[in-house]
Amino acid sequence: MPVSSTVSGTTLTIQISGTLNGQIQRDFKECYRASATTMTEFVIDMAQCEFADSSGLGLLLILHGATKASALKPKLRITNCRPNIKEILRISRFDQYFEIQ
Asked: Domain containing 49 — which CATH number?
């Protein structure tokens, strides 16, 4: 499965496998939809993600927008990026919205 999630306390971790693109949109949104306003941290674990395209980056921005309305002001992190994906995120200025590790 290309998208899965786990909850630990008030942290939701979403694991991406394969490619972060528009084809996983429904599954990606389903992972956080119910908890967008109740979590204090969202972690996108990219350890198994090999590639991200522009529609995948759009999914990350949608997550940012969905959590922005939360009174909890959750922390957003992207972890375990491959160097090529990390560079795309840096060039695209995603570090304005996410802590990138």
From this structure: 3.30.750.24
